[in-house]
């Protein structure tokens, strides 16, 4: 089956949906298609707890402070021009969200309740309780319903970009509900497919986050940069043998919660002047160090200063999630440990989301824009996704959509098999990669661990090549290729900075 469209967006997180809305509204003569791997709302955005960092109402805050906080959090490695551009556009995109009905929490006076998170010098996080991503996704999807030239195809797994030389012409995808292999032919293709947390065994990301967009772009010869810069969120709920976990937002520490080690000691003052509100890379390594010293699997978050009642009001989703695990926040210590959370690198783009492949764009977590450098400042990711989606939209004014779109020649290897033995082999290899990456390419690395991982991945890759190429195989290959890229980029790296720490390297002098 072939579907022709003018604009094809891969992914239905905030970056993809915001771009789809703006494009479909401004160009009613164009057809816009969004393909999404699961239901339209299932994305990394949906699970975002924190919010959107924006200088807006806080009289003590300035754009310059936000820029400096972002720069410092990255160890001075972010692109300052990009950071300035994004932060200066923050108020505009926030107003657009308010215009479609997105709601953010307000205090008793009616002013916005601005949270403070790690690395921020001021309270500037716009949020909806502890489920900001859910609010964004739901309101954005509602805003799309009236657009007749926009189509969302759910349960549609992206398999391979279609290219002709250095030009992207479309996408092969598999729609599982109708059991259809679809050849999309499009004038422009945008990768907004999110991150790759599933490369690791313990992650805050949903099951769909397997790095599909970045892996496909890599095979299409786009430039992949900084893929080794994986941010581990310092405080994910810890439960033995629970590989998919949930976040305990940094806003909890912003509200006064403190970290304790196994002995009950507060320890962050030993690691950074900002203590529990230090940037994520600092807190994650500090927790890792305390865990290694104690030989235990976690540390604890003490929320007694917030109290049970106030915690339930400020963070209702986290409260209910912990309560379901037998923990009462504000009364009990919450067991926490770092988990793979966000990729600071990805498909390298210019300021308008353009990649090295003609007609191929990227935004959101799939993209490496220069905004985050070696470490993302909390609540800057949704902001970056919105701004770059807007930039891509603005660049469409220079695209000639009148040209006929056609694919010169395209084929794909595909096997429709749900053989239990094959599915079990795919699952086993996926788990093998995840455990290897967690063990050898986690928060703290060494040259020997990276070398060992590289050798083991070669063996795993040979096994993958022998399997039938069903939809699960394509997903497994993406996980494998992202893992291989992380290892090869890590081995090539010569200095530590931000989230990247190798015991055998020197630290970047900032």
Task: Explain what this protein looks like in three dimensions.
The radius of gyration is 22 Å and the shape is globular. With 510 residues, it is an alpha/beta fold. The strands form five sheets. Strands 1, 2, 5, 6, 7, 8 and 15 form a seven-stranded mixed beta sheet that branches. A four-stranded antiparallel beta sheet has the order 10-13-12-11, covered by helices on one side. α1 packs parallel to α11 and α12 runs parallel beside α14. The chain is 35% helix and 18% strand. The mean pLDDT is 94. The chain is built from 14 helices and 18 strands. It folds into three domains: 282 residues, FAD/NAD(P)-binding domain (3-Layer(bba) Sandwich), CATH 3.50.50; 102 residues, Alpha-Beta Complex (Flavocytochrome C3, Chain A, domain 1), CATH 3.90.700.10; 81 residues, Fumarate reductase/succinate dehydrogenase flavoprotein-like, C-terminal domain (Methane Monooxygenase Hydroxylase, Chain G, domain 1, Up-down Bundle), CATH 1.20.58.100.
Helices and strands in order:
Layout: E1 2-10, H1 14-26, E2 32-35, E3 52-53, H2 63-73, H3 80-88, H4 90-99, E4 125-126, H5 132-144, E5 150-153, E6 156-164, E7 167-175, E8 180-191, H6 212-219, E9 224-225, E10 230-237, H7 250-254, E11 258-260, H8 280-294, E12 299-302, H9 308-314, H10 316-324, E13 334-343, E14 346-348, E15 360-362, E16 367-368, H11 381-395, H12 420-440, H13 447-465, H14 471-492, E17 495-496, E18 506-507
Parallel strand pairs: 1-2, 1-8, 2-5, 8-15, 14-16, 17-18
Antiparallel strand pairs: 3-4, 6-7, 7-8, 9-14, 10-13, 11-12, 12-13
Helix pairs in contact: 1-5, 1-11, 2-3, 6-14, 9-10, 12-13, 12-14, 13-14
